[in-house]
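I am still getting used to backbone structure tokens and would like to learn alongside you. Label the sequence line and the structure token line clearly, so we can match residues to local backbone shapes. Go ahead whenever you are ready, and we will take it from there:
>
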Amino acid sequence: MKKIIIILIASFSLAVTAKAQSLHNLYGVSWEVGFPVGDFIKKVSYSGGKLEYRHFLKPNISVGGTLSWNNYEEYFTQQTYENADQTQAITTDNDRFVFTLPMTIDGFYYLEGGATFQPYVGIGLGAQYSSQSIYYNIFVTEDKNWGFIARPQIGTLIKFSSTSPTRVMLAGGYNWSTNKNEQLKIDNLQNFWLSIGISFTN
């Protein structure tokens, strides 16, 4: 996992400093809403966001990096839970929490839109840190782990004017990661997401 992080940092640094062929660079910040997939947590999260950088190699192609995050929380009423070998059981209500921190290297292709809209498709690949926990009254079961993540997405940049460096960013996508927690019966972490933000170019 350390090698993955080193590769991500090195690739992102190269993208930031490689300006010889640059038409412009884009810096964005967005609010992100997460829709979890799976049984561990199902409640929508509004506590997410992302920071991103894009370096345009051509008018319709950019590369860059994204750091995003989301906090999921859901309360479950009283149920009976058994351990993995079914030798112990507990009946209680509980609070569940998942925190995700994806870090990706991204590639985007921009479609013909018009004077106002610049639609695009893209994908991000990288690593995700995550923590998962269940609080049963005074007891807690938790784990922290790393995994590989893929983030396909679609979106559009909305221009205020042809000369303005500021754009509204609208996007939607899907996160799939290999983060696993056997104790909490999590095989991977998945979620859909929608985001809205603002970007600046230079």
User: Anything to note?
Assistant: The CA atoms of residues 40 and 186 lie 7 Å apart. The chain has one helix and eight strands. The helical segments are 2-17. The longest strand covers residues 61-82.
